[in-house]
Inverse folding.
């Protein structure tokens, strides 16, 4: 059997971040070395509390430290939270049971610097929110890029429209200067953007399958999943998009587990930091062959295989 892949997960929990955490914790192919938190779908305090409560629900089989990070982008004003998509508390309004778990005193960026330096070439970073914590870590320790195994990030859009502006995806749009620093840092990057996450539609048939597969011992988990999927279906339906939940963040974890779920092409991705509509766009110059490369960009996904694997992992 292959060794588990060691990951640090950075989240802005958030419905799909919560789904990603449950997936990562249950995965037999991953070992979560720590979860760092940042603003995004809510402020960092709410995100951290959500993360601790999701961990309590998941009951990981080993200790997973949670470390709080940034509550603001590097330089700009924080964007308003999307209550329509994630609810007023990030979890569709669901109140998970409280927990005695607490976040470490350390800051997220220091935790990343420390763990990467103690385990060079061993740790994959999986980011499902803004890249702010990593940009701060890079400023603290510019040697990190040569010691990170890979960064797998949910963010960006290459051949498809954005989801915040016509061309910008939420995680990059939320802190373009941080994304700029990360993409130009030399860290090997896999970009799991809207080109692929936009195809991962967890719909009513998947929901029914998931509910039927959960056992009576999993009632708390079932109630939570029931609520957040129902909330998500109503939200997407109210936007005339049909009833489904896009599994943005779980797919980034899925790619960490098994990169054969996606096919990628290598590009030199530039981050636009200016412009009312274009700030946060992930761009590449397709007019010429790529002379430089900084990211492997996922362009197709075995979406149904992934969704089935997700369900099987969650119910295990
Ligand atoms: O664009 C999708 C991303 O934005 C996901 O990470 C989701 O959690 C939202 O914040
Ligand atoms: Ca997220």
């Amino acid at each position: 059997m292959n060794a588990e892949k060691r990951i640090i997960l950075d989240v802005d929990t958030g419905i799909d971040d919560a789904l990603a955490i449950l997936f990562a914790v249950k995965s037999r192919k991953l070992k979560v070395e720590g979860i760092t938190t940042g603003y995004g779908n809510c402020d960092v305090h709410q995100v951290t509390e959500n993360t601790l409560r999701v961990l309590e629900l998941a009951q990981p089989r080993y200790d997973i430290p949670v470390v709080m990070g940034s509550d603001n982008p590097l330089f700009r004003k924080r964007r308003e939270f999307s209550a329509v998509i994630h609810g007023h508390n990030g979890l569709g309004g669901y109140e998970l049971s409280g927990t005695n778990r607490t976040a470490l005193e350390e800051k997220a960026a220091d935790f990343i610097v420390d763990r990467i330096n103690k385990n060079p070439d061993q740790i994959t970073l999986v980011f499902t929110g803004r890249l702010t914590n990593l940009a701060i870590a890079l400023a603290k320790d510019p040697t990190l890029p040569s010691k990170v195994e890979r960064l797998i990030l949910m963010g960006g859009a290459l051949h498809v429209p954005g989801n915040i502006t016509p061309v910008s995806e939420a995680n990059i749009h939320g802190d373009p200067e941080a994304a700029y620093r990360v993409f130009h840092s030399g860290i090997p990057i896999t970009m799991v953007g809207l080109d692929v996450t936009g195809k991962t539609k967890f719909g009513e048939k998947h929901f029914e399958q998931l509910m039927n597969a959960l056992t009576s011992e999993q009632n708390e988990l079932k109630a939570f999943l029931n609520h957040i999927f129902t909330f998500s279906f109503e939200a997407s339906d109210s936007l005339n998009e049909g009833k489904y939940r896009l599994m943005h963040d779980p797919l980034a974890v899925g790619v960490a587990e098994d990169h054969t779920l996606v096919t990628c092409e290598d590009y030199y991705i530039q981050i636009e930091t200016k412009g009312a509509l274009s700030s946060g766009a992930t761009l590449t110059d397709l007019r010429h062959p790529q002379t430089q490369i900084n990211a492997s960009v996922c362009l197709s996904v075995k979406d149904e295989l992934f969704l089935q694997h997700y369900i099987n992992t969650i119910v295990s």
